[in-house]
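Attaching the record inline, Q. Sequence:
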Amino acid sequence: MMGSLRFRDLGLVGIAAAFWPLNIVSINLVGIVHPERLVALVVPLWAVSLAAVLTLIRLGVSRSAAVHSIFVTTVIFMIGGGLIRLFDEGVGYGALLGVGILTIWLINRLDGETLVVAVIWGGAVALLSGPVIGLYESLTNFGESVVVRSEKPDLTMNQTPDVFLIVLDGYPGALAMTQDGFGEHGGVVDELESAGFEVPDSAWSSYWTTGLAIPSILDMGYPATRRWEGTATWKELFEIISGGSWLHQVLEANGYTNHLVESGWTGSACGLGVHRCVPSPLMDEAMHQTLRNSVISPVFRDFAGPFVEGALASMKWLIENGQDLGNSGTPDFVFAHVMAPHPPFVLDADCAPNISLDRAGTTFNVPGVSEQRRERYMQEQIECVNEFMSRFASSVGHDSVIVFVADHGSDRRDQAQEETTEWSDEAVIERLNVFLAVRAPGNCRVGDQVLTSNLLRTILNCYSATDVQLNPPRMWVNPMTELEAEVVDRLLASSPGS
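Structure, as predicted:
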């Protein structure tokens, strides 16, 4: 029966199944962590669509009418979610069903008409042009990378404790918490300090955004110092996160096994420098962006989102595996990026998803929701993260290095917006003052004033036979504006009571 279909029929149905995933890929060439997942989405849909075509042919529908009808049906499946969200769910599905039935009726009624063929193939060309144009624009705007790698530390470690580096996305520091009325971090600090952690108040990120802050931590330097255009810089920054950092290379040279726990965010992937990969949940950011426009989009009303699901999966894996890794007898480096307490603020204090429009959104401010309510939701998610830290710290022995560090703080002053050009002192403190807690064996101390670009250099110094030079303190705010040296010094000297 497949022989009754022509290659152009296969291609037409394939375009309907693949155009939207291809569009997602074309505009985000450097941020698709698992392209195989999109392929695994397209191929079964294509196969089901072809099976539907063959079924219609068996029922007596002409080949052309069957192909054209299923082409339209598949397109509706891929992008019909927008219409459903526009109306009430029942009305939306009814409208889609009506449009589909009417279109298929017309196709069958006018089967073979030149106008129908022209409209169908014109639609196919239009659908396919989206990914083609997106790919062209992505390639022409790729630009040149401005990443500047610091000199790789050349060191031999005389001790090789296991190292757990856990980035808690968007967790503000003590100064920021006090400034914005949250009070200090409360009981979790006392608990961590009782468990042997340092929790300095004056801990600062050198960058305001995740895509720069995490490479700065891992590469132990300042990977970008000026503005750029295009995606070449992001590609190299993501490669640093994905196992290409100096930290990964130094630890590998000293016999470590490098583990990476993917977060579900587009910049979190396992690259060549990773020996053991813990994949993100299936519904990562790219898969979510692809399927949320399909007719099954109402399913996602009860979905916590890729960031939340990724955070829950990362915390669960760390709790379940931390103790075994700590007792493995061989040195392990585990890097995990936990996408919390970054919004959406879906997790309550017990880490149970509580899904509502008030809690949604990937920024602090949400139209129509009071700042006080968003604060309460954020505090609940912080309490969830605090409970995770306590549980993880108690599960891993004191002979391992544990680092909990934030990449940046919150953004209630809209610091992450591209048009932000002027920062008040309060905005700088909110975004760059970060939570940090470190427990390292052998009386290793990070000090009272910490810049995250020097954090791992300081820790490596505790276990190296040679000194690791620290970077001069530097900080940037959006859009790649470097703070003056005296401002950086003043921030580092700040404390909640000052």
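DSSP finds 17 helices and ten strands in the chain. The longest helix spans residues 114-140.

More tomorrow.
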